[in-house]
Write a structure and sequence with these properties.
With 782 residues, the protein is α/β, with parallel strands linked by helices. 39% of the residues lie in helices and 16% in strands. It has 26 helices and 20 strands. Strands 10, 11, 12, 13, 14 and 15 form a six-stranded mixed β-sheet that branches. A five-stranded mixed β-sheet has the order 3-2-1-4-5. It has a five-stranded antiparallel β-sheet with strand order 19-18-17-16-20, with helices on one face. The longest helix has 26 residues, at 124-149.
């Protein structure tokens, strides 16, 4: 499309109204960011097809390039007429030359320029002014070229527009290359530049006499030209295209215009930076005033701001804030000062009179009434009761500031940082050495909640309401160890000849019956782990699901065990489990509480070992055989522990233990009628085993399962973490200042719609962490 448009050779703009329509289509595609190899939208494609269909008709356009009429005599007057116009699509200028031979007139087309409007949105008045500037430039160029061909001929220039904005601008201000008397008003329906700024089809262009020969009034005497409106009216300051010269000031501004101090305060986030910028502006103001008064100082200005300049800038800022926040109080104090100075001369009388008038002038609900405010050098200060105290003057009469203001927030933030992020009372004490901010205690507390440094040091770990128990912990009737939790503990040292070797305990616990099985692993390599798992399966039967931690979850384990488990090949373990139709699940990294079932059992193992052995034997066992024996005794002790409370009533059944299910032995007398004399031994044994298994699960459901109903902690739901939240990732091996900071990329929603784990993107890696291993720093905006 661009190639076709550029191939039209029309340097004088004869067919500019037709060509500009294609340029408008191209600009629309650029605004929509359509690529060079993308399909054109339907609307623009239809407009382009209509435009290209008319392209062959360009050969019908014919224009006589001899500007003069076929006459031998010389013209009495020659004039250039330039018409300018602008629309929402673009702006254009078309020029004609007008020859006068006495009373006879002849007009000819000279040139035209058409431009689409800029991509940056501008107003129609500004486009009209742009078209006017283009008309002046075209006039200068044509006049220069005309003089080269005929130096003796004098030529006049007339500029036409239908914009009152342009006429008012020209009438009110002289321009360097055009005179206000050259500008004329032309109605829009008679302006030929209007065809070029909006575009025409080729058929309308061929029929347009106005375009090729100029408007009809140019062929008539000057007396019949369109009359111009009054151009000498005053230009309104509300005109959006008028640049108003304003005086140099930092406080007084016209209504609706934001003053420089407010701009600086809203732009900066540091109190010292605000003071420095205002101080530089005040220095610039002083230098400009001296220059305007033609006062030249011999000394050169220092490149550094002085203390006095910073103090003066601070006073200017505070005065501006007080005028906005306490206008009634300041007015009342000013009235009191004038009245007391005029009515009496006694200082004591003046003070009493001022207090009385102050009570009348200031409303009783004024927030600063109890501060006994005074006005010193135009600044509102605390009067108070410490005028006789031996402390600095600025500490006796602090500057009063409102609570809800940007300047107050910046000052509080500055004092908070300068006091090294101390507590609220410390910050408040430092603040009131110079400032008195209303309700500062509450504001400081809110500031500390937003402060990233304070939150990093003091924020608590996230919590979420305790989840419901998983299905594999509340399913009865399944054989023991159908759903198993697995974990390592140790290491234990044994003597092997004269050397000492390490052995590790592998604990398997049934997720629902809480039974325990312990194996000994010779090492922490993957093959030893698989062998321990094979021995467990051979003795306890088929397992549907195994759940275990990874190395990052072993919070209470020794450093050696943590490092050894990190080296386990999880892929090999998964492959072995899948070959035995076992589903192996790994808990979320660092979520040690997810494995509370086996973590509690490991603590019980340690407690029993301490009871069975002396401390010396715990450190070094005499042989593998001794260690295996000890673990079997520990296993039996744990499986004999009561699952429910021991009853003191002798008529109650014995307390339920996991050995009831594992050993299928019942110390109690079986109820009568269960077996008969006709039953064979094998049949009676099978029925006894079945009865004991059923009895265990019935008691398990009735006695043990209800004990798991209540939550011991994390009782209420908390705010869910969201994607985009900034968090601190807990690392127990490092101090709090070194914990990495990250952004949440993905959330993992559990039951009841609560987020229990997330994926966090840190500076160096991506981590999966539970919510209780994160500290929320910044919340994502909703």
């Amino acid at each position: 499309m661009l190639s076709i448009v550029s191939s039209i050779y029309d340097p004088m703009g004869m067919v500019a109204p037709y060509v500009v329509k294609a340029k408008m289509i191209l600009q629309t595609l650029c605004q929509q960011k359509i690529g060079w190899d993308e399909e054109i939208p339907h609307q623009q494609a239809h407009e382009w097809n209509q435009w290209t269909k008319e392209l062959p008709k360009l050969q019908e356009v014919k224009l006589d390039r001899c500007l003069k009429p076929p006459r031998s005599d010389q013209p009495t007057n020659i004039q250039f007429h330039h018409f300018a116009d602008a629309s929402e699509q673009g702006y254009a200028v078309v020029s004609y030359v007008r020859y006068m031979y006495g009373t006879q007139i002849h007009c000819s087309f000279v040139s035209a320029k058409a431009r689409v409007r800029p991509l940056k949105k501008v107003t129609i008045p500004r486009l009209e002014l742009t078209a006017a500037v283009t008309a002046v430039r075209v006039d200068c160029k044509l006049r220069n070229e005309w003089k080269k061909g005929s130096e003796d001929e004098e030529i006049e220039s007339h500029l036409w527009t239908d914009s009152m904005t342009v006429l008012n601008q020209q009438g009110g201000r002289n321009k360097e290359k055009s005179d206000p008397s050259q500008w004329h008003y032309v109605p829009s329906q008679e302006n030929p530049a209007d065809d070029c700024s909006r575009g025409l089809t080729i058929e309308k262009l061929l029929k347009s006499e106005r375009w090729f020969n100029g408007p009809q009034f140019l062929w008539k005497p000057k007396s019949e030209w369109p009359t111009s409106p009054d151009k000498t009216e005053e230009i309104s300051n509300q005109d959006p295209e008028v640049r108003i010269k304003v005086g140099v000031g930092l406080v007084e501004c016209s209504d609706g215009v934001q003053d420089p101090i407010t701009k600086v305060v809203n732009h900066c986030s540091d109190w010292m930076k605000v003071k420095r910028i205002v101080a530089w502006l005040l220095r610039l103001k002083r230098m400009l005033q001296q220059k305007a008064q033609k006062k030249c100082e011999t000394r050169s200005e220092s490149m550094e701001l002085s203390v006095e300049e910073l103090q003066h800038a601070e006073e200017i800022i505070v005065k501006k804030v007080q005028q906005q926040a306490f206008p009634a109080e300041i007015t009342a104090l000013q009235k009191c000062r004038v009245s007391t100075q005029e009515d009496a001369s006694s200082e004591e009388y003046l003070t009493k009179r001022a207090e009385v008038k102050l009570q009348k002038e200031i409303h009783s609900k004024s927030p600063i009434l109890n501060l006994d405010p005074v006005l010193q050098d135009g600044l509102l200060r605390v009067g108070g009761r410490l005028s006789a105290a031996a402390i600095p003057e600025h500490s006796k009469h602090q500057l009063i500031l409102p609570r809800t203001h940007r300047v107050s927030d910046l000052i509080l933030q500055h004092v908070h940082i300068q006091s090294n992020h101390q507590g609220r009372n410390h910050v408040l004490a430092v603040l009131r050495e110079k400032y008195w901010i209303l309700g500062a205690g509450v504001t400081i507390k809110q500031l500390m909640k937003r402060c990233i440094v304070c939150r990093r040091q003091r924020c608590k770990l996230n919590e979420q309401m305790m989840a419901d128990l998983p299905s594999n912990r509340v399913k009865p009737d399944d054989p023991p160890f159908t759903y198993t939790g697995m974990d390592y503990f140790g290491p234990f040292n044994i003597k092997h000849g004269r050397s000492i070797r390490k052995r590790y305990g592998v604990l398997f616990t049934c997720m629902n019956s809480r039974a325990v099985h312990i194996e000994i692993a010779d090492s922490m390599d993957t093959s030893s782990c698989i062998n321990a798992l094979r021995r467990f399966l051979a003795r306890r039967g088929h397992v549907k699901e195994i759940t275990s931690d990874n190395g990052t979850n072993l919070v209470g384990a020794s450093h050696q065990l943590v490092e050894a488990i990190k080296e386990l090949d999880e892929t090999a373990l998964q492959r072995f489990a899948s070959s035995h139709e076992i589903q192996w699940k790994f808990n979320t990294p660092s979520a040690s509480h997810h494995g509370g079932v086996w973590e509690r059992m490991i603590r019980t193992v340690r407690k029993i070992l301490q009871a069975l052995l002396t401390e010396q034997h715990i450190k070094v066992a005499r042989s593998d055989d001794e260690l295996h024996t000890l673990m079997c005794e520990v296993e039996n002790t744990i499986n004999s522990r009561p699952l429910t409370r021991m009853s003191e009533d002798p008529t109650d059944l014995c307390v339920l233990t996991t050995n009831h299910l594992l050993q299928l032995r019942n110390p109690e007398t079986l109820p009568p009628g269960v077996f008969t004399e006709k039953d064979a031994y094998s049949k009676r044994r099978w029925r006894q085993v079945q009865f004991l298994a059923d009895l265990f699960w019935k008691r398990w459901v009735a006695e043990y399962l209800p004990m798991l109903q209540t939550r011991q902690k994390w009782l209420k739901p908390k705010r869910n973490l969201l994607v985009g939240d900034i968090v601190l990732v807990v690392d127990n091996s490092a101090p709090r200042n070194s914990w990495p900071m990250g952004r949440i990329e993905k959330i993992h929603v559990g039951n009841k719609g609560l987020v229990r784990s997330v994926t966090v993107k840190t500076q160096s890696t991506t981590l999966d962490r539970p919510v209780n291993k994160l500290c929320l720093l910044l919340e994502q905006d909703n």
